[in-house]
Design a protein that fits this description.
heterodimer; A: 183 residues; mainly alpha; Rna Polymerase Sigma Factor, Chain: A; 8 helices; globular; B: 337 residues; alpha+beta; five-stranded mixed β-sheet; 5 strands
């Protein structure tokens, strides 16, 4: 085994260009933090719980950063796997379905008349998202909230990339129908 | 017109600026635990499943401890406590019951302070090396030496094999006061490879046995007198029965006494014959190697015993971990159901 390979195994390389696991983790944090929060908030539909779980996920990931193996998937897939477990643990702890206590506000809130249509459409989509099952909502969150590829989503959920594509397609169709009904 | 996919990306919840700032600070600090964990007394879970798990773990721990320490080996059990000597009782049925007990071995130390003559049980071991061709002649010389010192050969064995496999052993009995001259004569027969002598003071045993024999003899005399004066058949029968028991006891004590006297009056000499070349190359290095091999064998035996317990435990542990991980995963997935 070459020296580089050994170094990779030992450090659990986050990024090839990073000089240490801590620095690599910081780079991952900066890249993924908003997306992790978006994913968790979409799944839990509770802002306070989402903050709690996001912080918890990064704490766990930071503690386990040396156990990351590039051969098992990307850093994002690894991180979102941890975030998912933390979110599901939170759901279990509360023993309730994700309830929209306070809808995440529209960050793109309309400030002018021409943006009103867009804001309405976002409201419709958000409401339709709330009617999806948690599984479907999670899939949407991983794809559009976290921006993961099908391959990475498959790693997080433990299913194949093609299966992800199929499920996502069905979910989007369902969401589209819901939106059309609302409109 | 924006597509559904575009809108979905737009509606992604964004973190609160205060939360972002807090996370940034925590990132710089290396994500220290946010909450101060309160010290809580452990709550005892008394569910049957928990109790069963704790009991099983405890049982396994005990099994490990017992197995690793090598417990349960009959051969390693301590010897039973010595039987306390029964004292003679000269009256009543209780006395007869006491007398009926088997003769216990002498108790107490063998030191017996104040004894005029010390009784020492002597023994010696001698290893002689010679050419196998000379073994026959050597055996004859050993017999003659024993005879010359008024001793005798108690047992002997002789194996004539090829080269190193020829060997012989003799157990001689020679008068204790002739032990040294006899050993000197035996040592002259061949090359002495090893010679050792030992002595055990058995004066205490000797004195104890002698005293108990005297007591038994006195008791018999007393019983005989009482038998002469017995007026009823019942009393006569009881006395005869006790006389019989005392008689048996005297016989046993005499045998013991004779045995001790013989062991102290005659020394035991063990003579071993070996090939003159066998073990010639034995050196301290060889002994050290033997010791090292022995130590390694001991360690290996210990590891095998430990593995015999730890491997099944590890398998059970891994299985338990797998089951727990599976159940945890299922529980998490159920949260989405």
């Amino acid at each position: 085994m070459s020296g580089e390979a050994v170094a990779e195994r030992i450090s659990g390389t986050f990024e090839r260009q990073a000089t240490s696991p801590s620095e690599a983790f910081e780079a991952l944090y900066r890249r993924a933090f908003p997306r992790v929060y978006g994913y968790v908030a979409t799944l839990l539909r509770d802002r306070a719980a989402a903050e709690e779980v996001t912080a918890q996920a990064f704490e766990r990931a930071y503690r386990k950063r040396r156990s990351f193996r590039a051969s098992r998937g990307t850093e994002e897939a690894w991180l979102f796997g941890i975030a998912r477990n933390a979110a599901l643990d939170e759901l279990r702890r509360r023993k309730r379905r994700a309830v929209l206590e306070a809808d995440p506000e529209d960050v793109h809130a309309a400030g002018a008349d021409e943006q009103v249509d867009g804001a309405l459409r976002r409201e419709v989509v958000r409401a339709a998202l709330g009617r999806l099952s948690p599984r479907e909502r999670e899939l949407v969150a991983l794809k559009f909230g976290a921006g993961l590829s099908h391959e990475e989503i498959g790693r997080v959920l433990g299913i194949s990339a093609s299966n992800v594509g199929t499920r996502l397609h069905r979910t989007l169709e369902k969401l589209r129908r819901e939106c059309d009904e609302d409109a | 017109m924006k597509t559904l996919e575009d809108v979905l990306e737009e509606v992604r919840p964004a973190p609160d600026p205060d939360f972002v700032a807090d996370m940034e600070r925590r990132m710089q600090l290396g994500f220290p635990p946010r909450r101060k964990r309160r010290l809580r007394l452990p709550q005892i879970d008394l569910r049957p499943r928990t109790i069963a798990a704790v009991s099983a773990t405890g049982l396994l721990a005990v099994l490990v401890a017992v197995s690793v320490s090598g417990g349960g080996d009959e051969s390693e059990r301590p010897l039973a406590e010595p039987v306390v000597a029964q004292e003679f009782s000269s009256d009543g049925a209780a006395g007869a019951r006491d007398l009926a007990q088997p003769i216990p071995p002498p108790v107490g130390g063998d030191f017996a302070p104040g004894a005029e003559i010390r009784r020492i049980e002597r023994s010696a071991e001698l290893t002689l090396a010679a050419d196998p061709d000379d073994f026959d002649g050597l055996a004859d010389s050993i017999f003659r030496t024993a005879d010359r010192h008024n001793g005798y050969v108690l047992s002997s064995s002789f194996t004539q094999g090829e080269d190193d496999f020829s060997s012989g052993s003799f157990e001689l009995k020679v008068p204790a006061n002739r032990l040294e001259p006899a050993l000197n004569d035996l040592s002259r027969l061949a090359t002495v490879r090893s010679r050792s002598e030992s002595g055990t003071d058995v004066t205490g045993t000797f004195v104890s046995t002698r005293d108990r024999l005297r007591t038994a003899l006195a008791l018999r005399t007393s019983l005989l007198r009482r038998l002469e004066l017995a007026v009823t058949d019942t009393a006569e029968r009881a006395l005869r029965r006790r006389l019989e028991i005392v008689g048996n006891r005297i016989t046993g004590l005499r045998a013991q006494f004779r045995d001790i006297r013989e062991r102290t009056e005659y020394a035991t000499v063990l003579v071993a014959l070996m090939h003159k070349d066998a073990g010639a190359v034995t050196s301290e290095t060889d002994e050290a190697v033997d010791d090292a091999v022995g130590s390694l064998e001991d360690i290996l035996n210990f590891l095998i015993r430990a593995a015999g317990v730890l491997v099944p435990l590890a398998v059970v542990g891994v299985l338990a971990w797998l089951v727990a991980a599976y159940r945890r995963r299922r529980a998490r997935e159920r949260a989405l159901a």
